[in-house]
Amino acid sequence: MEHPQIVVVGGGHAGIEACLAAARLGRSVLLITLIEGGIGRMPCNPAIGGQGKGHLVREIDALGGEMALVTDATSIQFKYLNTRKGLAVRSSRAQVDRHLYQRRMHHTVRTTPNLSVLQGEVVGVVTEGERTTGVELADGSVVRCEAVIITTGTYLRGTLHTGMTHRSGGGNGAPAAGQLSASLERIGHRLGRLKTGTVPRLDGRSIHWDRLPLQVGDHPGGRFSFLGPASSLPQVRCRTTATSERTHAAIREGLRHSPLYGESAVIDSTGPRYCPSIEDKIVRFPHKTMHRLFLEPEGLSTREIYPNGFSTSLPAAVQLTALRTIEGLEDVVVVRPGYAIEYDFADPRDLNAGLQSRMAEGLFLAGQINGTTGYEEAAAQGLLAGINAALHVKPHAALEGSCFTVGRDEGYLGVLVDDLTTRGTREPYRMFTSRAEWRLVLREDNADLRLTPIGRKLGLVDDARWALFEARREAIALGLQWAEATKVALQVRKPETSDVASAAEALGVELPAMSDEVAEQVSTQCRYAPYIKRQGAEIARLRELTDMPLPADFDYGTLHGLRGEIVQKLTADRPATLGEAARIPGMTPAAIALLAGRLR
Amino acid sequence: MRLSGPAEAMDGVVRTLLGTDLAPRRATLVTVTDPRDGGSIDRGVATRFVGPASYTGDDVLELDLHGSPAILEAAVAAAIMAGARPAGPGEFTRRAVLNGKLDLVEAEAVDALIQADSLAAARAVGRHLEGELSGRLNELRASMMDAASSIEALVDFPEEVDDADVAPDLERLASLALAMEELASTFEAGARLTRGLHVVLAGPTNAGKSTLFNLLLGHDRAITAPTPGTTRDVVSESVTWSGQTVRLEDTAGRRDAVDPIEAEGIARTAGAAARADLVVEVRDGRSADEPPAALAVATRADLLDEAGRSRLQEAGWHLVGAPGGEGVAELRVAIGAQVEVPSGLLLHTARQHDAVARAASALRAAQAAGIDEPVLAAVSVRSAGRALEELVGGWTDEQVLDALFERFCIGK
Question: Nearest by CB to B379, which of A292, A531, A594?
Answer without folding.
Answer: A531
